[in-house]
Amino acid sequence: MTEEALAQTIVAWLKRNDGPPRVSLLGIFFAPARWLGHYMHGGAYVPGDLRLMRDELRFDPDRLRAKLHRQSLSWSVPLADIAAVTRKSGLAMDTIEIRHARGVETIKAIKGRDKAFFAQLDAARQAAGAPA
Q: Which domains does the chain have, with CATH numbers?
């Protein structure tokens, strides 16, 4: 039996660079744009679902990315370990930084669509004893 999510939103997570991106034969046509994105953002954005569970925040990539990548792109952070959630407003998307004990997760979400989700996240964090 799987645990039910308290809230869910669609986001894009910034997977940080762990070296130069690999380029396949077909990827040569897209390489300039891919390299530019890697150097501008410091990684590649992975679309997926951000779920607020009872005691953790969980990211799962969409089905296509999950099948294409050898290593798992899923991650989770206990709510009590989240130190801060900051939001930077953009023209069409908001950039949200989630600081926790292991580092920082950067997420992009469509503007105005995620306000209720992050309000629930703040309430759940405070209930779990995370700093305000």
A: 7-128 (2.30.29.30)
